[in-house]
Design goal:
The complex is a heterodimer of chains A (about 350) and B (about 300).
Chain A lengths: L2 E12 L2 E12 L3 E5 L6 H9 L6 E6 L2 E2 L10 E4 L11 H11 L4 H14 L15 H14 L4 E5 L7 H18 L2 E6 L2 H7 L2 E6 L2 E6 L1 H6 L4 H6 L6 E8 L2 E4 L4 E3 L12 E8 L4 E3 L1 H4 L3 E6 L2 E4 L3 E8 L2 E8 L9 E6 L5 E4 L7
Chain B lengths: L20 H28 L3 H6 L13 H8 L11 H31 L5 H11 L4 H14 L6 H26 L2 H9 L4 H12 L1 H17 L2 H6 L7 H9 L8 H21 L1 H12 L3
Helix pairs in contact in B: 1-13, 3-13, 4-7, 4-10, 4-12, 5-7, 7-10, 10-13, 10-14, 12-13
Classes of the chains: A alpha+beta (about 350), B mainly alpha (about 300).
């Protein structure tokens, strides 16, 4: 895969505070990469570095094979969409879209052609003569995307573009962005703290923490095979259930003595000796009733809390003395205090070394 | 069939209480306070419309009873003696205009660009530079008066309009830069970033993006400068030179002249004429002026 954006050993310090530490990232041509992490993890900073709005303290940035480490933002072949839309309030939609082209001194008919095309793609034609103040949030964000679109750039940078929108609009625009990516096939780098956006949009997700990329993989791998405890805990809502204990060969013994056989778990390296470990199981991988009996591990529990979510129901209980949640179908009748049999297959779970927090 | 609604049950808009003791006290205090502040102005206006014989009677609060004359106003504007010449306040008025207009324009423009640069184009030492500016606003003018005299003398502009304009521009900087800096800092940073990605440079972002968004703060800055410079006496008397004395200095010369009859009506008219420009600015721009004070209050 030919790489479109390539970040090599990039570091950035604000004074003595390291924000990005020796970061490497290769983004393929036409790839949709999501930088995901909590606030303050450096994801927006990294995006600003790629855009050229922040100067790096070390390392190199290549876009389209060209070293742009010292290049001005406009010379990098990027378009950027911001969380607050950042539309020029005194200009009409049309002039907002054409501002960058006018700055570049492009001929008038070419500008008109490009604005027309962008307005058509984003369904903004009826609003071209309006000021941003007279647009809804979704329309404003479409204008912001259009501003990147008209410049005909190779790489789109999105800085939490949907965070200011309400839930319904957010999911609508999410689909629009995905559709846009399929149509344009541009490289897109997208920053968000919303894991749903990340999982739905990305070809690959880079989960970041403290200026370091923890894991870079496709959404399926990130969700099902997190490389460490941090990624496992950050992705997934409700959170992955974590049981602490000791791993001895292919037997996992929880702190209160419950034995869970993990013989069919695919270890990254052959298990040796005995070590403190954490077994993580996603709520939807725990099953209830007859199915549970056929699982490698099952036990009888009492339901403590029931949370109906509409599409499914979330139940709280305890396994091996630890609070555990599991999902069941919303049609299943389940009530507080009910005794049920639950079970899971450790092969679908994740086992982490308790000290290094890395996946075993 | 009768259609009776229960009148004692709360329903619809709450009835207004009308005049109660609390209201009367509040309005009473407000009226007294307003009269206290308006009385001097009333005395000035009535006195300026009286003839000298009536003034000598000594009823300063009485309205003009004998004759109402605009003679003192005409004299104050055209022929009152300001030192050696007797041409009234008119030359002083035009001197003040010649000082205020360029000083305001130059200081506001320089401060706007400085504030913009301090917020959006951080350079090495920009914080230090800003701290120096802030410190400048705490130093009393008198301390810098003599050095400024030396500087303007070295520049060979001492005693000219340019000297006063330079001094006003320099001394307006701390508060104005602070004003603009705080305002630009309150604008979303992403707007500036978006403009940079669009390829706009320092001046284009300033003129096409920032200035159209900051008209309110320009209004505030202009009001602060116009009223401040118009009311200035010290710099005018020190730097302008006799032929360029601003209106405030001329007014002082009229009021404090020690020869002949003290023409209270002319003095009053001259004072009102001198205060007219700031007064007009306050009346026309009350809302903006309050904002300016609030913005300046950050300075402490």
């Amino acid at each position: 895969m030919q790489s479109s954006v390539s970040i090599k050993d990039v570091s950035l310090n604000f004074g003595s505070v390291p924000v990005l530490q020796h970061l490497d990232l290769e983004v393929g041509q036409g790839e949709f990469i999501v930088l995901l992490g909590p606030s303050g993890c450096g994801k927006s900073t990294l995006l600003n570095c790629i855009a050229g709005l922040l100067d790096v303290s070390g390392g190199q940035i290549f876009i389209g094979g060209k070293n742009v480490t010292w290049a001005e933002p406009k010379d990098r072949g990027i378009g950027m969409v911001f969380q607050s839309y950042a539309l020029y309030p005194q200009m009409t939609v049309e002039r907002n879209l054409s501002f960058g082209l006018r700055v570049a001194g492009m001929p008038k008919d070419e500008i008109n052609k490009r604005v027309k095309r962008a307005a058509e793609i984003l369904q903004l034609e009826p609003f071209l003569q309006r000021k941003p103040a007279n647009l809804s949030g979704g329309q404003r964000q479409r204008v912001a995307i259009g501003r990147a679109l008209v410049r005909d750039v190779d790489v789109f940078l999105f800085d939490e573009p949907l965070s200011n929108l309400d839930a319904k609009l957010r999911s609508d625009l999410r689909v629009e962005i995905k559709r846009l990516h399929q149509r344009l096939k541009n490289t897109m780098i997208y920053v968000t703290h919303d894991q749903i956006e990340a999982l739905t949009l990305a070809d690959r997700i880079a989960v970041m923490k403290n200026g370091i990329i923890q894991q870079l993989a496709d959404p399926h791998t990130i969700y099902n095979k997190p490389v460490n405890l941090y990624v496992a805990g950050f992705i997934g809502s409700p959170q992955m259930n974590m049981l602490e204990g000791t791993l001895n060969g292919t037997t996992f013994t929880t702190d209160d003595g419950t034995v869970i056989p993990v013989g069919n778990y695919a270890f990254t390296a052959p298990a040796t000796g005995s070590a403190k470990a954490v077994l993580g199981v996603r709520p939807e991988h725990i099953v209830m009733g007859e199915e549970a009996a056929s699982m490698p591990y099952s036990t009888d529990v009492e339901i403590e809390i029931v949370e109906p979510m509409g599409s499914d129901t979330l139940a709280w209980t305890k396994i091996a003395g630890k609070p555990v949640t599991f999902r069941c179908d919303s049609d299943v009748v389940i009530s507080t205090g009910q005794k049920v049999r639950v079970g899971f297959d450790p092969a679908r779970g994740s086992i982490f070394n308790a000290e290094t927090t890395n996946r075993l | 069939m009768t259609n009776i609604t229960a009148v004692d049950e709360p329903s619809g808009p709450r009835p207004s209480k009308g005049f109660n003791p609390k209201r009367i006290v509040i309005y009473g205090i407000i009226i007294v306070a307003a009269m206290y502040y308006l009385l001097p102005l009333y005395v000035m206006i009535t006195t300026s419309l009286k003839g000298l014989p009536e003034i000598r009677v000594g009823n300063i609060f009485a309205p003009p009873l004998e004759i109402i004359t605009i003679e003192p106003w005409v004299k104050a504007w055209t022929s009152a003696c300001t030192g050696l010449t007797c041409e009234g306040l008119a030359p002083g008025f035009w001197n003040s205009v010649k000082i205020t207009v360029p000083s305001t324009i130059i200081s506001v423009l320089v401060a706007a660009v400085s504030g913009y640069a301090l917020v959006n184009w951080r350079f090495k030492g920009s914080e230090f530079f800003f701290t120096c500016l802030l410190l400048g606003s705490f130093i009393p003018y008198q301390v810098m008066l003599y050095p400024m005299v030396m500087i303007t003398a070295q520049l060979k502009i001492f005693g000219t309009l340019w000297a006063v304009i330079l001094v006003h521009t320099v001394f307006g900087m701390p508060i104005l830069v602070l004003l603009f800096r705080n305002y630009f800092a309150s604008l979303p940073q992403e707007l500036f970033k978006a403009a940079r990605v669009d390829g706009a440079g320092f001046w284009r972002i300033f003129i096409q993006i920032m200035v159209p968004m900051s008209l309110p703060i320009f209004a505030v800055a202009i009001i602060l400068q116009v009223t401040g410079i118009w009311n200035d006496f010290l710099f005018g008397v020190v730097f302008a030179g006799t032929q360029n004395y601003p209106m405030t200095v001329q007014l002082n010369n009229i009021v404090n002249s020690t020869q002949g009859v003290r023409e209270y009506n002319v003095n009053m008219a001259a004072t009102i004429l001198t205060a007219a420009v700031p007064l007009l600015v306050y009346f026309v721009s009350g809302k903006w002026f309050v904002r300016g004070i609030a913005a300046g209050a950050v300075k402490g």
